[in-house]
Amino acid sequence: MQGADTDAVADALESGDALPGSGGFAGELDGTLLRDVLGRYPLFVERTVSDRERLDPEQWSHDPTALADPRSFPAGHIRDDNGTRQRWSFPSPDPFSDRETAIKRVRAVVETSIDAVDTDSLAIAFSGGVDSALLAARLDAPLYVAGFPDSHDVEAARSAADLLGTEVRVVELTHDAIERAVPEIAHATGRTNAMAVQIALPLYLAAERVAADGFDRLALGQGADELFGGYAKVAKAPEDPRVEADTVRGAQREVIGSLPDQLERDVLALRAAGVEPVTPLLHDRVVDAALRLDGDLLVDGETRKVALRAAARHSLPGEIANRDKKAAQYGSLAARELDRLARQAGYKRRMDDHVTQYVESLVE
Q: Which of helix, strand or coil describes residue 81?
């Protein structure tokens, strides 16, 4: 079992509580295979085994490369002698009664979760945005950012580190590093689509440097955008065609549902680079508070992550708490330069999904 201890998992299995106060779990417990509702730990089974067939230890793994034909075990599900079925789903709690109560609760759960992190052999992935800056302000650990020299993330991380009175170690990305890392990421994650590889690239290359420097755990601000309304498609609901929901709060729940697939990719990439991810903003207590936020505490006009930013002002300078950030693949310029490499190799933009075709050529 990875994640929560077996007693806590057993209680969650019996009660059906989707947010029992853990940081996630996945594995086998007394003959039952299970994975928490957010999918915070990867879990795979052999594709060729039917849902009614009993699994033995050789037919499931946390590492897809250990199986002949792996398929992801769905988050929130269990598998026992009665087959595979859903055990947990996201709750639908009532919103907080008022704005002040909501922000106080968000502040309490975020600070509690971050402060509980053991800093032994820990580094922090730092982009200079509010999510990673909260980790940097409250944890005594070195900061790392990955990006090309002229990238937004490198500049933002350096300026935020100055405001926090600390330093950030820059992992400068290069074309050679990208070409080497792409097949390694594809092998570890089982994914070759352009977006998945672009997102994983700066994480993977930063994590390699972290591991080389002697750290084996990497803290990340993962989950904050999904939980607290950080995406444009959430802010623009229901007009944005990328979400089906007709409210901001509904769109928030929709993007939270995408977390298991994203976390699986990132955890596998980081482990392949030699570190174990640490994600305090994905603790159950934080998820529970986020699900209780009204739409105007997620998005207010042009401001996203309203409640999180308000809570963060107790730990951060206002300039950082209010700062917008770019997605890692764009802020690091990894997406731009992978596209450039694809075109230089003859995979032109007029071709269908040209960057994915380039990735697949490197894997081959």
A: coil
